[in-house]
Amino acid sequence: MRANSLIELDRDHLIHPVISWKGHEARGATVLQSAKGATLTDAEGHTLLDGFSGLWCVNVGYGHESIVEAAAEQMRRLPYATGYFHFSSEPAIRLAARLAELAPGDLDHVYFTLGGSDAVDSAVRFIRYYHNVTGRPAKKHMIALERGYHGSSTIGAGLTAIPAFHDGFDAPTPLQHHIPSPYPYRNPAGDTDEAVIAASVAALKAKVGELGSENVAAFFAEPVQGSGGVIVPPDGWLKAMREAARELDILFVADEVITGFGRTGPLFGVEHDGVVPDLMTVAKGLTSGYSPMGAVLMSDRIYRAIADGAPAAKPIGHGFTYSAHPVSAAVGLEVLRLYTEGGILENGRRAGARFAAGLRRLADHPLVGDVRVRGLLAGIELVTDKARRTKPAPDLGISGHLARFGYRNGLVFRAFADDIVGFAPPLCCTDAEIDLLLARFEQTLNDVLDV
Ligand code: PMP
């Protein structure tokens, strides 16, 4: 089918996530046709270097035949198995066991979902259940970070603190609260590690104090904030927040949907500070986007408390038709093998160091205010006055120009509305691809400057 007729059908029938529907009607879709490694090809034959791994998910890169084979083989043998009625399937069992082995500490129990939003939603349901069966039913309030992203489900969108996910959707709920982001570049008390950590710990303590610890269930945080503008907290921040949560008697949930599976260097983002959360949510890199799947990893302590505390004769009423889908699980197993035995994690670390060095060289560019990198996850904050850290005025339309010039220069990245650029290249990138990505980005910045 010709690209033009596809674009018309798209405009008439396909509702897209997280864009202006009217804006999309006017612009039309960019139809992607195929991909290999880190390169996308659109329906008109243009090639694009994917600096964003799809939506921060295709960590292993495109076109791995061994993943296709694992999915096809599982589809032939057993394309579906429910987890209801005590049924199970071999790939789901093996993937749960492998995750338990690879995850930090006693995160030994795994609940599979279809993606990140329902992983967050499942974590919220399990936390409520846990506090109810352990005799603390008042513990219902949940605290997350400003600029945090925790999905688009009815509950997750309220934990998220990005205005577009709240406006018009009656979110957040009265049980959801936010404290300031650990945002060194714009921390009112200064950008030293100590100042940023102290501000976050004080804010969490103050919020829990205000609500009463007996009423607070949990604190949710991404090890590096992704959709809020790739905000990298200082070393030691995760550890300090984990300790504060323990002291305050609330659960600590690490949302590793973006940071999991090598994105920031180690397999999980919390490893950066050697932290073991009570619960961890994962998705994206779990299957590298080849098939939808997410998961909640739960500590042994919480699992036992729920298993032993729940009424023995009653089901724990939480489940999806596609929980622990065997095809996604088979994909996940092969993707994990590529991370741990296929050299992808090592390559990602090497590529990440090269990418970070290249981005830091761009710090002198007149538009670049801040460069934040951990592994292959990066945010570049654009300003119009470097000394004053002045954000570009909205009527300059910088993020629109960035996206347009980026595409023209054969590069895909995320241009956030507040003029922060996000990068999350596939972990399989070669040195040449990293260099090309940096050159195309520099060209794009220069094009924007010339407008
Ligand atoms: N949590 C985080 C940290 C995320 O980045 C995302 C997705 N970008 C989600 C949850 C939601 O995941 P999904 O889009 O798979 O529902």
From TrEMBL:
Top-rank taxon: Bacteria
UniProt KW keywords: Aminotransferase, Pyridoxal phosphate, Transferase
Classification via CDD domains: OAT_like
Requisite cofactors: pyridoxal 5'-phosphate
Pfam family, one: Aminotran_3
One Gene Ontology molecular-function label: pyridoxal phosphate binding
PROSITE patterns: AA_TRANSFER_CLASS_3 (PS00600)
Family: Belongs to the class-III pyridoxal-phosphate-dependent aminotransferase family.
Protein name: Aspartate aminotransferase family protein
